[in-house]
User: Fold this.
Amino acid sequence: MVEVRGLCQRLGVALSEGEPLAPLTSLRIGGEALFCARPPAWGVVPALLEGLWSFGVAFRVLGAGSNLLVEEGPLGFGVVQLRRCGGAARWEGATVEADADVPLPALAAEAVRRGLAGLESLAGVPGTVGGAVIMNAGAYGGEMAGVMTDVALIERGGGVVWRPVSSLRFGYRTSDVAARGVVAGCRMRLSPGDRAALAERFEAHRAKRLATQPWNEPTAGSVFKNPAGDFAGRILETLGFKGRRRGGAGFSQKHANFLVNHGGATFADAWGLCEEARAAAAAAGTTLEYEMEVWRRAA
Ligand SMILES: Cc1cc2nc3c(=O)[nH]c(=O)nc-3n(C[C@H](O)[C@H](O)[C@H](O)COP(=O)(O)OP(=O)(O)OC[C@H]3O[C@@H](n4cnc5c(N)ncnc54)[C@H](O)[C@@H]3O)c2cc1C
Assistant:
């Protein structure tokens, strides 16, 4: 830790040790990271990461924490929170370059205000641009990979490098980007559209979300990916998991594929319930794959 402290001090990066992650995640579950480093500006991020890599310190990158289930107890790794680094979105015609800490909902709303199509279906996906790139976030037929042209990566030993999307692998709620580096931003090409029609689609998606998802409760979004040609929510509902609880955790009454922290949920409650659902689906012949990311304690 001595070297991490020195590095952060030199770079003017706020550092806290033994940081509980529960308040930094939307599900509000999780133990203590060895440290949490919060760079105040993008200018210092490459040097911070390079330093941590060179020390061999175990760490993970955290955005807005809206796709995570984190185990309790001392986690054995640190986190670098790329959420408030003073990032911005730079618009030029139908192209936008957004830093990774920009909130995706704000970016999507701004695109609609500018009469640009491509992000309106992602309007209600919480989190940062960086998290959305990694997860290839998507909704209602649209996904990040469909609008991005390039991703800015901070690569070990290489600083910031722009990589064309064609050189990266994106799939349904997955990518190989995290294995390549840390996302500093991305470039998107949107298409000019009718502002009123876009605003209408944006509102329709928002209204659908509010009506069908537990948006005002602590949740990490969809627990499982939809199997090809089916919906994880439908499967869970058929198996009787809609509204099912274990301790403080439960599958939502509003949407069977959303796990909710009803208050005081532990990792054991949440994980136990998810694994029970996965086993029930497997017994019924369907393999459910996690969409939500699970951070376990380092061994
Ligand atoms: C109510 C609700 C609704 C949701 N609906 C949707 C939906 O419709 N569609 C959908 O796709 N998702 C949905 N989600 C999940 C979540 O919003 C997305 O996965 C989002 O893109 C995660 O962004 P984040 O900043 O919160 O990432 P985090 O949860 O902080 O991190 C997710 C992953 O990305 C990595 N990461 C984050 N930032 C960076 C970076 N800059 N560089 C490298 N790695 C990074 C983390 O290490 C982690 O592996 C929903 C979540 C909630 C709570």
